[in-house]
């Protein structure tokens, strides 16, 4: 059985006080959510405070990116996976489409960062997803396959225990245009098939594949009914404790 994961990606939102307020409001609302793992991903500078304030709760804290280098060094502006672990992060989002689109992330850098995360026992939430033109030209599957194969290259079967995939069609992110549950299911099934090719059927069956892109309280249940959808990576609707709690408690 794959335990569902509901993760909130706070992107570049919230000052520290607001982040603490939302996290503390979420704490009791998520307290009985034993059916899933709950994660929030604030900006780097809020990680330590939120990790401390949420200690002992069932909410884990994720970073939104990490450096590809693993040792200390002259890397101005970078933050290593070890540093994230050190301040209390348990997960890190890697290769989000906004990083790929605006900050030059490639399949190669995603692979390097994923390995860096694993080196310090973080769980990597690896994002993949096609843009609208790729879907419209019938290339969605080949693009996503290239991203998955690229991200997971060189990872062992044991490494895969710390990998969560997030399928986020770029055309659905922040647009209010959620993928139809069947459409998402089709791609999730495809991704599981790709993982079966790269790491074997057993690993593919065990890997959580989250859907992301305009997930809201009113569409989560339909998505979660799909066989290969194991949770959600939520942007906008995770910014308020009440709406995120409704998504967490979709059952
Ligand atoms: P959204 O963002 O829920 O606001 O569409 C999802 C994401 O970017 O992870």
Name the features.
251 residues, alpha/beta, TIM Barrel, eight-stranded parallel β-barrel, 15% strand, binds 2-phosphoglycolic acid
| Sheet with the most strands, sense and barrel status | 8 strands, parallel, barrel
- Return the structural class: alpha/beta
**Range of helix content:** 40-55%
Mean pLDDT: 98
In the CATH scheme, the class would be Alpha Beta
The succession of helices and strands, N to C, reads EHEHEHEHHEHHEHHEHEH
Question: What ligands are attached or bound here?
Answer: 2-phosphoglycolic acid
Strand content: 15-25%
Strand order of the largest sheet: 1-2-3-4-5-6-7-8
CATH-defined superfamily: Aldolase class I
Rg measurement, Å = 17 Å
User: Architecture, CATH level 2?
Assistant: Alpha-Beta Barrel
Q: Tell me the distance between the termini.
A: 16 Å
Oligomer: single chain
How many strand units?
8
The CATH topology turns out to be TIM Barrel
Question: So what's the overall shape?
Answer: globular
Number of domains: 1
Fold topology:
Elements: E1 5-9, H1 16-30, E2 37-41, H2 47-53, E3 59-63, H3 81-86, E4 91-94, H4 97-102, H5 107-119, E5 123-128, H6 132-136, H7 140-152, E6 163-167, H8 181-199, H9 201-206, E7 209-212, H10 220-224, E8 231-234, H11 241-248
Parallel strand pairs: 1-2, 1-8, 2-3, 3-4, 4-5, 5-6, 6-7, 7-8
Bound molecules: 2-phosphoglycolic acid.
